[in-house]
Amino acid sequence: MQQIEIFEIPSPCKGICQVNNRGYCKGCYRSRDERFYWNKFTNAEKRKVISLCQQRYKRFLQKKQQAEQQQTNPEQGGFDF
């Protein structure tokens, strides 16, 4: 039995609308197709897209954190002390 959705799932758009080098929006982390077809998706598909966006955002934060750590803790010119 399928559960009836009472509320429409809103778009995760943040109004930034710029893409990164991989084609994902820098604001909501959706792909081009995910943005383009949002209004045609079922609520189950929309929930899946939102889950994917959350995963992409977490990966972005991890990479950003790793880059910041490398800048604050640069290796000692390649020497191991």
Kindly report how far apart the N and C termini lie: 64 Å
Low-confidence runs (pLDDT<50, min 5 residues)?
A: none
Secondary-structure class: mainly alpha
The count of β-strands is: 0
Helical amount:
40-55%
Order of helices and strands: HH
How many distinct helices?
2
Radius of gyration: 18 Å
Mean pLDDT: 88
- The number of domains: 1
Shape: elongated
Main sheet summary = none
State which percent range the strand residues make up: under 5%
Fold and architecture overview:
The chain has 81 residues and is mainly α. The chain has one domain. It has two helices and no strands. The mean pLDDT is 88.
Highlighted features:
0% strand, 81 residues, elongated, mainly alpha, 2 helices
Topology:
Layout: H1 32-36, H2 43-72
Write a short abstract of this structure.
The protein contains 2 helices and no strands.
